[in-house]
Amino acid sequence: MKTLSPLQKARYAYVPKLPGMLRHGINEICVKEGLATESVRDQEKIKALFPNTYGKKEITFEKGTNTSVAKKQVVGVILSGGQAPGGHNVVCGLYDALKATDKENTLIGFKNGPAGLIEDNYVVFDDEFINEYRNTGGFDIIGSGRTKLETEDQFKVAAEVCKKHGITAIVIIGGDDSNTNAAVLAEYFAANNVDVQVIGCPKTIDGDLKNEDIECSFGFDTATKTYSELIGNIERDANSAKKYWHFVKVMGRSASHVALECALETQPNICLVSEEVEAKKMSLSQIADYIADSVNERANNGMNFGVAIIPEGVVEFVPEFKTLISEINELLAGEKATAFNNLGTWAEKYAFIEKGLTKESMDVFAILPQTIQQQLFLERDPHGNVQVSLIESEKLFSALVKDKLAQRKKAGTYNGKFSALHHFFGYEGRCAFPSNFDADYCYSLGYNAFMLIQYGYNGYLSKVSNLSKPAEEWVAGGMPITKMMNIERRHGEDKPVIKKALVELDGKPFKFFEANRETWAKETCFTYPGAIQYYGPSEVCDLTTRTLALEKGE
């Protein structure tokens, strides 16, 4: 028997807030078309790849007479990629809009990600099913997966499955890769006269699916609030015990949006930003010295404690480390990997490595703690490359800092105590109960996605903007996915992909952090966000991220 917690019961009953223009009856929502669009880069190449869906107009929804052609809609929905809080509400918003238009409309959920569409593995939603997942975290309503829809054979199968069920549209809820696949599928359907629309919804807790149109991907708000609560708790403990330095790694492989937002929320002593590390070409030694400077100065003031936030993928942005990884990938290519793995002891393997690396890379390798050295030679990814995500960078930097402090102690410039503890916050935030912001935003994205379907749009991303304002003032509409695309080199080929949004070093969030971090490094300026609030004053329970507020000048 399923037992519900009091919070679960209360959240099921929560009614998400919609943008003002979507609060009118379905029959009172009309479309306003804007200007034609072009891709963010590589316009001619993207246009050539997407001749049927490129250059379409941006649109917004307004109050007015609904001019769409009435027809029965059978919509398929897919959750793609890693979990992000609020995904269930995208499905619920899509379902509610679909049923509000016509009770005979049907929503089909394809299970376990895009593979569900190819394998025809599905469930048909009804009220009872949907109501169990309203305002809840996770993707367990239908599961997710990372299968990519990118081959013609897959597209043909998808078209057949859609034809079998009479599907009129597919909604793909995912990140940059998933929505790139949505754009390619939309183009295939258009080019082959398959009467099925494809709509995307922007999801990723990493926060790197954003631009001038997509102000925020869903899940980022809840995940960063969850991590910030935990970091705030650790800060309070550090300030109470006064004897530990906590190194906290947070999710964010390619971008440091999560780390930066958590720093803005909690004001730690140190926060590394991968994009700055790359821009300044900082070495591991320089980064370690930067952290050690804070440890040293705080120790001089009697504070042998602190908190440092480390982005998950920071080592990939260190030029010398990037070169080292490249050389290791080459060192273990093909049959050489078998020869390496057949060596019995670490000493034998170390000699093999020493012989195969350049002197410069060996110098970098030699300063790494042995545990990190060995992590570089763990199981490879499907392409035979180092799995950088397996590297415990929080332990790497604390070990390097410890060595720096030992050198300073020997030189008589440091006389403190350094004891490090380590944390990694990732999965803790991926399936949290969505914040009110994400509950509202996601529901609006799903509801809005159906409006795009009803008006016949294909290859569009569901777009809700003006997000730093109350939900009543949010603006709903859509933008062609091709507007976000550029060409990148992937696995030796030029591929159209959605351009990742990295932390902008001249942007307002980073500039605010940069202006304050020197003080935070020396003094104890910790702030304690506490748990996500679902009930109470709007300024407490509906507040947005510090990143979005700063970007909007609020």
How would you explain this protein's 3D organization?
This protein has two domains: 17-219 and 434-498, 3-Layer(aba) Sandwich (Rossmann fold); 225-320 and 384-428 and 507-551, Rossmann fold (3-Layer(aba) Sandwich), CATH 3.40.50.460. The longest helix has 22 residues, at 220-241. The two termini are 47 Å apart. It has 554 residues and is of the alpha/beta class. Helix 3 packs across helix 19 (436-454), helix 9 (257-266) packs across helix 20 (508-522) and helix 12 packs across helix 15. The chain is globular. The protein has 22 helices and 15 strands. 43% of the residues lie in helices and 15% in strands. It has a nine-stranded mixed β-sheet with strand order 1-2-13-12-7-6-3-4-5, sandwiched between helices. The chain has a four-stranded parallel β-sheet with strand order 9-10-8-11, with helices on both faces. It has a two-stranded antiparallel sheet with strand order 14-15.
